[in-house]
Amino acid sequence: MKPITVLLCLLLCLPLCAGCWDMKEINELAIVNLGAADKDPETGKITAYYQVINPSSLSNRPGADKAAVYTFKFEDYSLGRFTKQTTTLMPRRLFMPHMQVLILSERYAKQGIEDMINYVEMSPDRRTNILFLVAESPVETILNSFSPLERMPGRYIRSLLDLSNNGYGFGTPEPIRVKNLVIGLYRKQAMVVPLIRYTSPRPADVTDRLEDVNIRKQSFLFAGGAVLLQGRMVGKIDFDEKEFYFILNKDVTSSLVTLRVGGGNVDVEADGIRVKRRFRAGGAEYRLRANLRIVNNEQSAAVTIRNMREVEQAFDRYFERKADALFRLGADKGWDLLGLQDHGVKNWQSAKVTFDMRSETSSVGNTNGPLRSEGRN
């Protein structure tokens, strides 16, 4: 084919190219970074919060607006009407694909979240990896507070969860996403999602933070987990119980515990926790294995082979006791935290569930015991 013929064919095809028809100007969009909702159990009225990024505040341009985000609040009885509601106050088009986190109030979660899951799933701009949290504090307080080190609360919350998931913390697995909640609707196993709390009854602005450097006084805090059963919040568990829930369900492989051995405290890090489960109609057997590392030792005696065995035995007893307590808690509350029903266990609340932990110390640090001054016995 001659070059001129090829060129003519390309020119004829140009009108058929889509080009940038779907391009969106950033100055025309209200980019939502964090979303939240509350529902009045008496009236059914839903309060929605959209935290929108202020692009000019993120630039280095002198005189730029200081607020990194703006929080818009709307009220209605139907989730599908909120997009229309935003046109009454937002001067830009609502844009949801960049939303990091979705927070629901505790009382909303207790009424059931199926309507919110369906709304997110049906949205053409939906993101199935939106992180889902339940707020123990009022959502308005959380959204209107200044977050440390991160100017946007949505990014701050996501960074906390991502760091824990990447091994910088213990007891927090891959964060719960909306797509995980969809799966949970069809299972009998209870789900545990992060429970967020604000440590002050009132929001903290930038001025408050400049006057007080104690971040914990006014900050976001993850405090245990909210237990959801087929889309409805039925209770709470504390941080330790949440950690064991994820370990026994093979979502977390590390733990840090403090044991009392040899008259002193011993902090032990368990890594590479392996869980093998065997289900049968009358119950289940859990075999757990872990590698231990002593990270802090306050015993009066030096670390010996015998002493390491004592640490391992103390850890095994502790782990078996905590695992059994979690199962008993769920059985008493009617929460199948281990998913026994989904694996064919009948009469699961009275089923026989056993836990067998075997650990092995692989590292004790650089010394064989705690360092002491010469004058101390």
From TrEMBL:
The keyword Lipoprotein applies. It is a lipid-anchor. Pfam families: Spore_GerAC, Spore_GerAC_N. Residues 1-18 form the signal peptide. Residues 22-197 form the Spore germination protein N-terminal domain. Its main location: membrane. The keyword Lipoprotein applies. InterPro entries: GerAC_N, Spore_GerAC-like, Spore_GerAC-like_C. It is found in: Membrane. Keywords: Germination, Lipoprotein, Membrane, Palmitate, Signal. Belongs to the GerABKC lipoprotein family. This is Ger(X)C family germination protein. It comes from Paenibacillus artemisiicola.
